Amino acid sequence: MRTFPPNDISSLVGTQPRHDLGESFGPNLRLKDVLAGMSGFDELELSYGTVAGDPGLRAVIAAAHGVDRDDVVITAGGAHALFLLAFILCCDGREAVTTTPLFPLASNGLTVSGGRVHTIPLSFDAGYRIVPAEIRKRLSPTTALVSFASPQNPSGVTIPPANIREIVDSVAELAPRAFVLVDETYREATYGDAPISSSVAGSSSRVITVASLSKCHGAPGLRIGWAITQDAALREQLLLGKFNTVISCSPIDEMLARQVLETAQHTMPARRRHLAHGFERTAEWISSHSAFVDWVRPDAGAVCCARLRSDAFHDAAYSGSTPSSTG
Questions:
Q1: N or C: which terminus of the chain carries fewer CB neighbours within 10 A?
Q2: How far apart are CA 219 and CA 27, in angstroms?
Q3: Does 137 reside within a domain?
Q4: What is the pLDDT along the chain (327 residues), one digit of tens a residue?
């Protein structure tokens, strides 16, 4: 029997603590925020949705990413898209290349699908930067998927577009049947007026992007995500995989999701200001404790990586020797 590994982040859907210092998203939207000014909701039929997802919702997502509506498949959250892609592409021992740290559900999907996973560790000292040459060294004709996030979860580091293009070029050369999956869930979660990185959706038929309403938009309860691919055969498998797992998404969720996205120009600036405030407070705290704490400054997102400085917390600090001046 295949088993799913236990995971501490299951607490995301457990009893909520009063103060969650590890929260990975901003304030949740409330239903009244979404319903304000919305009409036709009471006439919605509680039927099955379509397998691909509501055409209007897919059109909104497609327009925001510069792709065709039919390139978009709606899924039950971004995690569902990640799992389906792992199951379709990496079953039966096919190879995947990914990085760590990584959103646990992304890596777990690869493992439980039976794929052979080559994991590239990204280091704090190197700023969690992906080196395309390291991915290239792990590619082979049997590679089926290269998977990473930009911005990364949990570091918040964005991968430069030139590096992504270099990775895609290497895959085309060395792993001609493989796809490059870029999880863009945090792409729009920038700080204040900071620029938003362009999506890589549609940049190549080899590129798949995944995102959702959970992080940037503050609507994880809607359970709406999406995958974007321009490969017709892969899209067909995603549709079959979705039908065989959840049949369709809820029409209620899809209707509300469309409203969230269509009003994002009004709601997102306030959310980005909220993120900027949290970022500034974190930066100030790190700066005021810089003798003891170091961090990798994130480019986007609601979480980051910090650590105790080894030169301030070494063995001598606990051996009874005279404290340093920073003590």
A1: N
A2: 9
A3: yes
A4: 677 777 766 656 566 667 666 677 778 888 888 888 788 778 889 999 999 999 999 999 999 999 999 999 999 999 999 999 999 999 888 999 999 998 888 888 998 888 899 999 999 999 999 999 999 999 999 999 999 999 999 999 999 999 999 999 999 999 999 999 999 999 999 999 999 999 999 999 999 999 999 999 999 999 999 999 999 999 999 999 999 999 999 999 999 999 999 999 999 999 999 999 999 999 999 999 999 999 999 999 999 999 999 888 866 554 544 433 333
| Nearest Cα residue to 327 out of 291, 297, 302, 298 | 291
Which CATH number is 197's domain given? 3.40.640.10
Residue 10 located in a structural domain: no
Q: Quick check: is 183 in a domain?
A: yes
Within 8 A by CB and 6+ apart from 24, the residues are: 12, 153, 154, 215, 301, 302, 303
Domain for residue 80, yes or no? Answer: yes
Residue with tokens 């979860």: 153
What type of residue is 240? Answer: L
Side chain identity, residue 201: A
